[in-house]
Amino acid sequence: MRRYVIERSMPGVGERSLSEMRAAATQSNAGLAALAPDIQWVESYITDKKTFCVYLAKNEKVIRQHGKLTGFPVTKITEVRRVVDPTTAAVWSKRDGKTRKKPGKRS
After folding, report:
1. Contact 42, 48 (CB under 8 A)
2. Which of 16, 38, 43, 57 is placed for a possible disulfide with 20 were both Cys, Cβ 3.0 to 4.6 Å?
3. What is the CA 43 to chain-centroid distance, rounded?
4. Domain residues for 39?
């Protein structure tokens, strides 16, 4: 499955209570169950006016189907090409067909 970030414009979402968030998560989980195994919710980041949800999905179509089933808006879908984190600097990399360590690392 591919990894996607789904942007949802939802004014006031950052002010919702924990019980409202719990209800939304339950609603989302029901939609996910109906579309399984083609979609999985990883996590969401909540701002004042938007949510940014990370999903694993077969394709964008199943993400839009989830939005229709749950009533959650799908403003923008972006496929993730690569994940970079602090450990990226310390791992082996492949470049030009040769395996090497990042500069500054000794074997």
Report:
1. no
2. 16
3. 6
4. 2-83
Number of domains observed in the structure of the chain: 1
Q: What is the value of pTM for the model shown?
A: 0.80
- 46 φ, ψ (degrees, to nearest 5): -110, 130
pLDDT band at 107 (very low <50, low <70, confident <90, very high): very low
4 secondary structure, DSSP code: E
Q: Which residues contact 83 (CB under 8 A, 6 or more apart)?
A: 3
Residue 34 within a domain: yes
* Closest-CA residue to 36 (of 5, 11, 1): 1
Judge whether 23 lies within some domain: yes
Residue 11 has pLDDT above 60, yes or no: yes
